[in-house]
Fold these 3 entries.
Entry 1:
Amino acid sequence: MEPVIRIENLQKAFHEGRALIWAVNGVSLDIYPGEAVGLVGESGCGKTTTARCLLRLLEPTKGRVLFQGTDLTALKSRQMRTQRRHLQMVFQDPNSSLNPRFSIRRTLAEPLHLHGLGSGKTAQARLEETMTRVNLEPQMLGRYPHQLSGGQKQRVGIARAIITEPRFVALDEPTSSLDMSIRIQVLSLLQRLQQQLGMAYLFISHDLSAVRFLCSRIFVMYLGRVIEAGPADEIFDHPTHPYTQALLSAIPIPDPKTRRTRILLEGEPPSLFNLPKGCGFYDRCRNRKPSCALEPPALRDAGGGHFVACGE
Amino acid sequence: MTQNGPLLSIRSLSVSFPRRGQRVQILDRVSFDVSHGEIVGLVGESGSGKTLSSLAVTGFLPRSARVEDGEVYLDGANLLALSPEEMTKVRGRKIALIFQSVRSALNPMMRVGDQVARAIRIQKNARPKEAHQEAIALLSQVGISDAAKRARAYPHQLSGGMCQRVLVAMMLACRPSLLIADEPTTGLDVTIQAQIFELIRDVQRETGASILLITHDLGVVAETCQRVIVMYAGQIMEAAPVDLLFGAPTHPYTQMLLRSVLRVDRRVKPPEGVTALREEVTYAIQGCRFAPRCPAALPVCWEQRPEPEDVTLGHAVICHNWRGNHGTCHQD
């Protein structure tokens, strides 16, 4: 099967004063139709930058992004605009991603007008259908964001993303501002919509239990690079990279009967201003060897679709 | 001053706020204890009143708030009867606070070493130089490497995890008998969060302080606390030792919370019926404020506030229908 999204050796540098910061440093990943892929890692690892480059909300410094075989990075902005119908995004904070002066109707109708997907009665039918899909009453179309609760606002954000029937949706921490009983509702909704509409997801989150709930494959990033990738259950149950092991062991489990040995990491990730020459995790790694400091290890195949970038 | 009694005892505390020309009672008859050396978790979602309870204990209630009823005893003394000056002394010596917004808790214009030294000088009449030396010792005790150099940094030059360590060092300087930690790791990465909780547990073992840990993360509660108090919309729903709360939750709200919990060690199936839940919190209910969302609600629940009942010794539930409620409790 052809991937719906293929990222090839993506790199993104930002100017910070006179220095260059490499936020993403050679990421490659494929997303297949109807698949939910998790992109995880801690702040500053480059996961959000990767997603923004994928959708060309940021211009990649190097590398290619293919959508169903078309190189998005080579498109002119007008051509890119027509593709956006198929490539959508749900943002972290619905308070800042919904226009407070737009009614829900206007927020949802805008993508339909932009892409010429109907007006008048057909548009109205589509608005109502989409509202129902995200478990909101169609009567709420006349309301404004401040009249909605946090969970309802995020449902509007999801409705705006799916109303154009995209092939792919990037979800950037869509549940991190929600309470836990609301979080599971929104995640269940995303799961159901994916099954009904056959969309592919890139789910970006530092909330690994949410990733485990939604995703079938995951990519773990550290300091701008993918350091481990593979089927979600395989990585959650048998993490191989020392960073993934520490990351997973750090997450508290809501069950006092479960006791695990925690791998406590020393220190914090190195600054992006001063990237180490070798493996980015070298300073904090308990299995490090002198050779790890020389060059960053490449992803190697550990079998069963599981890839690890570790010199060990 | 009874060593045998609880260190902190909150009795029937009600706090109201003005809303549209009326007083709305946000905290409704909240009662709980924290014993000497105990780590108690206070959990709930947004609007549950968990932070408000801690503000009442520390005398930091906003001006618009009014204590309608109740007492807050620390070591037998009613804190609500103290003058602001007396309360300041209690905060410096007996109660320490760790807030969720780490950066706003530190003075951005002052080097972190000086801030810790100042806490030491308030605590005991140390000379500036001695206080500074002690501050550096405390900073390295909380795991800040190269403490002498880092002491000269301003908060913005340190990471969030580092700033939280500075706050823990300031707390150590005060040697408090009660530490209130309000979402102390919000905004920090999980590997840093694990470091901070390890540090807080170390500090607890070393100083024997009691800790009131306010959090929405049931994982943190399961791993850190001995006892848990569950709040919803300003009312306490259930209070139990950690293993009972997770193993035999009795209140429909606690059961709902545990059903919506996700785990990293196994794939959780979406719970049934969870998509239909309402989420608005209503304070204007005479009875149990969870009634509008409760699958086991009876007519009486709307009218009359249930009294606390003991399920077993040390496990209290505040629910009219806990005996008739057989909600499934866990995802397994």
Note: Chain A has one domain: 5-239.
Entry 2:
Amino acid sequence: MADVMLTLLKDLIRLPGLSGHERPAQERIQAAWEPLVDELSLSPIGSLHALKHGSGESPRPSVLVATHMDAIGMMVSVLDHGLLRVAEIGGLEPRVLPGQPVTVHGRRDLPGLLIQPPAHAIPPDDRKGPVAVKYLMVDVGLPPRQVERLVRPGDLVSFAQEPFEQGEDRLVGHSLDNRASVAALTACLVELQQRSHHWDLWAVATAQEEETLGGALTSAFALRPSVAVAVDVTWARAPGLPEHRTFPLGEGPTNAWGPNIHPGVHKALKEAAERVEVPLALEPLPAHSGTDAFALQIAGEGIPTGVLGIPLLNMHTPVEAVSIADIRRTGRLLAEFVAGLPADFLQTLTLD
Amino acid sequence: MPAPAARPTRAHLRLLQDLTEAIGVSGAEGPVRAIVRKQVEPHADTVKVDALGNLLVNRRGAGRVRLRVMVSAHMDEVGMMVVSVSSEGLLKFEAVGSIDDRQLLGKPVWVGADRLPGFIGAKPIHLMGEDETGQTVKVESMSIDIGSGSKTAAEAKVKPGDRATFATRFRRLGPSVMAKALDDRLGVATLIELVQNPPDGIELLAAFTVQEEVGLRGARAAAFSLDPQAALALDCTPANDLPSWDGEENIAYNTRLGNGPAIYAADGRSLAHPGLLEHFIHTAESQGLPFQIRQPGGGATDAGVIHVARSGIPSLSLSTPARYPHSAAGIASLSDWRDTARLAHAALSTLTERTLRRS
């Protein structure tokens, strides 16, 4: 049987879909989800809503699982003698940018290269250290007149690093934040084809997480789920990073804990992981979780929310790396969580 | 022999792709040498590899041989060498040749003869201290991750001393190409073409040299053994022609992309032979070929050591401009490259002993 999850993920990390312009990713996700769900729709802001009916009596409670599909990137700010200066979309690390291949989405897609100009072309104060994004440029290798015909300010610039695999379990590429989680949710939907679940499941690929969390906020308001879970990537452990804030790649997802997270949802996720023997690390997030959960929690009259994290190396670079086993585990855990929600789960979510 | 084609053929692009995607870090040029050998062997009178790894080719052009001319192009590229494997299975490395530390972070690389896919790890921006993004990360604190997870697993695949390069695929961008190692695989491709289609009236002593990027080392030995009457170094020089941040005219452009091959009057290591310089300019003008004079200044080509080999060899450098050399990817103009081949071919075909006289 074809691996729906992995095929989808490998396709997704070759596609653009920057915050606010998620359509290329959304269309591919929609194609993968169509056979797995009962209803599909798009929100006014561009989030993809997929409903998989539960088996309980109507009206049923519902759980929303949010995975953001938007990617970080850039936008053309000005044309300068045939070269393009850019502004950031999402948080970029300027030091990884020089030498990265990109696609400029002009009147047609143009391959290009993000470059650090020679020293004399940038201000004296910026010559020695890392060069700020505003002084970097994109070179599309075309004569200035042609560039002016094909590109204008506001055009999107997406990372074009080709994905690659390292061994059996590692996938490397751009936008694995957070399409790895979209893949995990897809694995959950695949597994639920064989299992019955009492609750309705809203599988949502959210828009604009990297900029405003606008997708999650509006989807949660529109769908009013009883419970929500955001799945996003978290920091994988690497030399030079604090051990207490990072999690080893390939050793399972994380279960966040903090003000954005409802203790009852946290506990239910933990118990689901135990039932299916998925290793699940505790991830303390003392304030803003940095995920869609921040918006989900306060949508409408407030929603009990949990957060799962998939460890990822080199976050917000074009060489993000993830363990495929961690994605599968997250999918399995989500399926168990959804299928295991008892009809009266909401009544257990009371706070003292 | 006919002049080289003005427009790149499919075979030209294929050759550029093969050459630029090959790994040939200084001191380990083998994969490039293998490509060159295959291309030149059917056309060469003699082919040999010397003690350093230079591939030296003799090829007599049609007609009476007036001169023995060395033409060099260096096969090596800047890159990396693995120097140790950490307990976590990460590879510590050093740069081979000059690479700005700021070009390294977050780049995919190919490691070793098996071209293992790796990347130079980068800290996530979310976990940085306030002023950390303002600091350049030094190569000493970087490492290559090949996904091994442990020292034992990594050592089964890689050993200290293995070379690595940026993992950059050749790509056409309209009238330009984007690739790693354009410096100097463009020159290597030009020289291959000269061997396959030699200029009339000279004995072409083609030197595909090694270790240019670590001190012009191969060319010195090659010039000694070839003992030419004149020499031409085919290289690739930076086009630093980007617009300035303040809108002021950029007057330190070195060369400009699309303005034709760059003839050197002087660089950091050599002064052009006046007769050769005049001859190349005159040839370009009379043939209607575009050219530019590279702005005199620093930098060096194989001519830096060739002109002082033996008792002195009249030498000139000719480069195809490329933006962003010594980084993950450069951009060059295909017409500049074709015109480099055309100018070299035309000028060599009409070179005489008189050109070389010092009056």
Note: Residues 51 and 339 of chain B are 33 Å apart (CA to CA).
Entry 3:
Amino acid sequence: MPAHEPDERLRLNGYVEKVTAKGASSRDEVLREVAAITETDYFRTLQEKACRLRATE
Amino acid sequence: MATTIAIHSFRGGTGKSNTTANLAALLALGGRRVGVIDTDIQSPGIHVLFGLDEEHTSYALNDYLWGTCAITQAAYDVTARLEGGGSGQLFLIPSSLKAGAIARVLREGYDVGLLNDGFGSLVTDLGLDVLLIDTHPGLNEETLLSIAISDALAIILRPDQQDYQGTSVTVEVARKLGVPRLLLVVNKVPAVFDPEAVKARVEGAYQCAVAAVLPQSDEMMALASAGIFALHYPDHPITTALKQVAATLVDQGGGPLFSCL
């Protein structure tokens, strides 16, 4: 890991923060996408299958 | 009892297949019987890392899904690729490279239920300790099935805004499927980033453990999928980090959801 100037590190960390903070602003969008997947019969069938699988382990 | 591990990424180009191949090799070097199945039928690639070409494969996963062979007939012993190291065994179940076979999958699809049966047969018939599933990027029936039946899921992402939202969706879906172990691997991190800062931010954003932050590597790029990185660079920090990821994924003592924060 190369050494950084303090302002460079702040800038990079700021970038990382910006990348990860995107989740907060698009949380509704994520939930909509999750719902589109999970509110399907196929997904419910998978959920039941996974539940049965874990119960037998 | 065998451990089934899905390696997934929401987008392509994250290094998923490379990571899968390295984890498989490291687990086999550690003495386990390991199977790797390439379910990225639309864009197969992991066979390249194991030096398995079309000339040396009679059957592929596609043939099993179309009912023309048993899945074990599409399993190839690639233990020799470990170059004599370790006491384990390594099998690869490749997807077909033939353009016609790929086009047929895109055109006709396949019975995802058969894939599930195939996973079970591989574990039983090959006596596997670990089955690694190299998934197709994104979320479709096949990837959802792979996630649902897995004991552990590793999601590979880059510190890239385009990876971020899809990974959020995948994490949420995996939680709803009750995947016992869920962890993230941040890959191709530029050298100018502080790995600890990346780890902390990603863990905070996803509320999920980051098993490794792997740097963008010139050595990896130069190897260009011509082999398994961990074998070429056994003492490299990336190899050390991948060993830790492998150990975490197969750790039987972690208990449910241990890796979620």
Note: The mean pLDDT of chain A is 69.
